[in-house]
Amino acid sequence: MSADRPPVAVVGGGSIGVAWALVFARAGHEVAIFDVAAGRRGAVPGELRERLDELVAHGLLADPEPVASRVRVAQTLALAVRGAAHVQECVVESEEVKRALFAELDGLAEPRAVLASSSSMMPVSRFAADLPGRGRCLVVHPGNPPYLLPVAELVPAEFTTEDTVARTRALLEGAGMVPVLVRHEVEGFVFNRLQGALLREAYRLVRDGVASAADVDRVVSHGLGRRWAVIGPFATADLNTRGGLERHAEVMGPAYLRMGAEVGEREEWTPELVGEVAASVHERLRPEDWAASVLRRDRALMRVVAADPEL
Ligand SMILES: NC(=O)c1ccc[n+]([C@@H]2O[C@H](COP(=O)([O-])OP(=O)(O)OC[C@H]3O[C@@H](n4cnc5c(N)ncnc54)[C@H](O)[C@@H]3O)[C@@H](O)[C@H]2O)c1
């Protein structure tokens, strides 16, 4: 065991549990995984192996053996968390189940172990607020699957210690993840709030007969989503408009405001808010380099298309 690759426990051996086990084992951590269902405990090694073989087939992993050998299935929760510096909870999205499990984990885990929940929507204060060890609890929300989508949302509660956040960030960065900090607890965090905004509109468009569900999916997979593979929505607005993000807000903002008003939203993009976002975008994409940035985006898109012409 190396000090910067301490043992990790994964609790819950479903889709996300197996995927987190792969992430940590790929980075060199010994991983113990536990699931309450004996059937799942039996299925984990085979599923892990299938996922590793897929990565090898796609040139994303050289040798699956060392990764597979670092993952062991534990027969009890106590055995899984023994010696682990980080516990990644991946059980069903149920407040009751997570509350009971976190109480158990707080008693069983090593005193300095971080207790991280993969919760998609629920902040940790909903189920760990009363624990003696609540300071070491937070949400670490992955995309699915985390070994292909490296972003991980760190969502501390008010009671989570700074040391917990710092140690979790370091562990995730060491495992090749891209942690982002959600500064205060909101349901759905950032990932699922963005996803939710798009899904709500997608359902409305289908309901109102504007487009078929298949065509809505096509607009994202062959359009918006392909571009989002290389830049985010703010950078997109900046690079799609001569004059950058501020000009985009000026020209397009009123139409977006009207679209919002149609569904009862009255969220104006004030000059202060646009200015704050523009300042961040322009740190990454300098206005004087706008044309070069557009070219860089297009080249990145070309690499995406060239990597998979069937996209
Ligand atoms: N699937 C996704 O796209 C996704 C993405 C990010 C986060 N998440 C979150 O990750 C968590 C797990 O989701 P999933 O999709 O892997 O679910 P899943 O249903 O595939 O797996 C959950 C597993 O937890 C086990 N389990 C239930 N109670 C347990 C307990 N007390 N102790 C140990 N194991 C227990 C179940 O037997 C099951 O195998 C949820 O909170 C979910 O919201 C899911």
TrEMBL record:
Pathway: Lipid metabolism; butanoate metabolism
Oxidoreductase found in the keyword field: yes
UniProt cross-references to InterPro entries, sorted A to Z: 3-OHacyl-CoA_DH_CS (IPR006180), 3-OHacyl-CoA_DH_NAD-bd (IPR006176), 3HC_DH_C (IPR006108), 6-PGluconate_DH-like_C_sf (IPR008927), 6PGD_dom2 (IPR013328), NAD(P)-bd_dom_sf (IPR036291)
GO molecular function: (3S)-3-hydroxyacyl-CoA dehydrogenase (NAD+) activity; L-gulonate 3-dehydrogenase activity; NAD+ binding
Biological process according to GO: fatty acid metabolic process
Pfam families documented for this protein: 3HCDH, 3HCDH_N
Keyword field: Oxidoreductase
Coiled coil: none
SUPFAM superfamilies xrefs: 6-phosphogluconate dehydrogenase C-terminal domain-like, NAD(P)-binding Rossmann-fold domains
Residue span(s) of domain 3-hydroxyacyl-CoA dehydrogenase NAD binding: 8-183
Signal peptide: none
Family: Belongs to the 3-hydroxyacyl-CoA dehydrogenase family.
Protein name: 3-hydroxyacyl-CoA dehydrogenase
Lineage: Bacteria, Bacillati, Actinomycetota, Actinomycetes, Propionibacteriales
